[in-house]
Here is the input.
Amino acid sequence: MATSAPGRPPTTLRLPAWLRSTDGVTQPPQAIFFDIDDTLFSTTVFADKARRAAVDAMIRAGLRADRADATRELDDVITEFSSNYGGHFDKVLDRLGPESFEGHNRAVIVAAGVVAYHATKWRELKVYDDVYEVLKWLAGTPMVRGIISAGITIKQAEKLIRLEVLEFLTPAAIFFTDQVGFSKPNPKLYRRVLQRLSLQPQRCIYVGDNPTHDIDPCNREGWTTVRIRRSGRHAAEEGATNAKHEIRDFFELRRLLQDEYGVS
Ligand SMILES: [Mg+2]
Here is the structure.
């Protein structure tokens, strides 16, 4: 169910919201930008599967630890050292102690974890079916389809390739925070993207899952905001402001764009 902001005056003529919000000039949305993690795919579910597969592989390779204990240590290492730290599995062995790999070369156990993690990545990193279908539909509209994503550039770029959605995006509209020089939630990030593409915020839509990093700054900049609340660690959080629209999947996004913004 797509929700609209309350308090909009009723109109007898059913004009798209976009037309009603301008000075009588037809101004359809120029561009729609997407966040990647927990917007295009379930980062949370994916990460959980990949970590479990890694722990299981390490145990098969000789790690002497309870599966739940090893998984908990791995989760803690990722929390403490960040998901982009390079030595997660080594740290897990450090924490479990030398008895956990006694009689084995620890490098082999670590390698088993790394290989299983990457194998899961190949197999499981997929967009939701509705995301694929709606991005494909959007690619047939005149709108610019972009990405504004925070994280390590090469990792985020790799996700777009693995997710197999690149063909539906506008090549010049893909932005990673490391390259732009501003990170979320700095509103300058969103301003800079629009400057680069000569777009107006009131004619741009941002779709993201994070209320404080995606929705609040875009609201501040005058964008139309769409919050996807489907999964992930931000699903229960609230920001300082509400998104203009909330959706649970991309089919709702398509209906919203068609019904309220006249996109076809
Ligand atoms: Mg996200």
